[in-house]
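Title: Request for sanity check on PH domain-containing protein prediction

Description:
We are preparing a figure and want to confirm that the structure record we downloaded matches what your pipeline produces today. Could someone re-run it with the sequence below and paste the raw structure tokens into this thread? We only need the token string, no images.
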Amino acid sequence: MTERARARTRGTAARRPHPGVLARDGGWRREARAAWCWGAALGGVLAVADLARGSLDWPRAGCWTAIAAALVVVLRPARITAGDGWLATRGLLRERRVRTDLLTRVLRADGVAPRLVLRDVGGNRVELDPRVLRANPLLWHQLDAGARRARERGLLREGAAVLEAVGEQVDGEGARAVFRASGLE
């Protein structure tokens, strides 16, 4: 096997989904890359401005780097994955996982950035942006299938209306995408 073929195989193995993951946020890489670009741009602008003033030294460069890194941390989105009966968000330091088939509450926290808050029987809690579900129908399907099982078991007592509203938005986005693709919009 040539070196190029080996490198291609290694890259493919690294991109294989984690076992049990049936759906993931397709826009996560793009958003994470944008966070890194904005952080690097801010750090670069601050360093160049300081260099133009003639006051750039190692401590100040370290300060600008720390500010740029803080921006990356703030802007970097959580990676959202789902499988049969679970949904997880992976932040910078830890993963939070909720059993969708054991959901007890679903809340919509409106504000500057609307969030869905999911809680399960074990007290686990996950927050996610509803736009991620609208952009990734497979994630929505996994969440909806688990929530239906929780409703059938009588566990989901609060939030069925919130899930229905999100479902209608996901279905509307899907229908608009089909119309755009077929040229009917």
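Thanks, this matches our download. Confidence is low (pLDDT under 50) at residues 5-17.
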